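Chapter summary example.
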Amino acid sequence: MNAPRLKQVFSATATLVLLSLATSALAQFVWLDEKGVKQYSDQPPPPSVPNKRILKAPGQSLPRNAGSTGSEDGAANATTADAAADGKPDAKAAPTIAEQNAAFQKRKAEQAEKSKKAEQDAKLASNKAENCARAHANQRTLDSGARIAQTDGNGERSYMNDQQRAQQNAQNQETLNDCQ
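The structure predicted for these 180 residues follows.
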């Protein structure tokens, strides 16, 4: 490569590097802490910092009246302070980062709750379907008239008599009625 071409490539590369560094500087937050000291960070301020103390956020520039002390701006500041003192929030004010995060966390929690409820409902429906299938199988066995053996508390085998069969049939009918 010749020297003039090398200088052009070097200057173009240097320009690109400087521009990429400048874009990261745009994503900075500026706010006043409790002591009134300006804080600079690439992270949002803590939720305890009110919106009026956030001087700059990514995508927004410094407020118009931040650096000037003109009489018109002073009057605007007074009316803003009066509105804040009345406790009426400014209708046009965008939500703070903390409010956006709180809203996001709330939506996330609601979505998790909905999915958990849907999962529980699906599990209950599955269990009910299994119980109904068992009840239908038991009813077919009871209706068949075949002898049904059971094991008692001592582990001995015994057969159902007609009274036990009728009692089991009634219980099974209650279960089948819940299935419909």
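To summarize the output: The helical segments are 3-26, 71-86, 97-144, 162-179.
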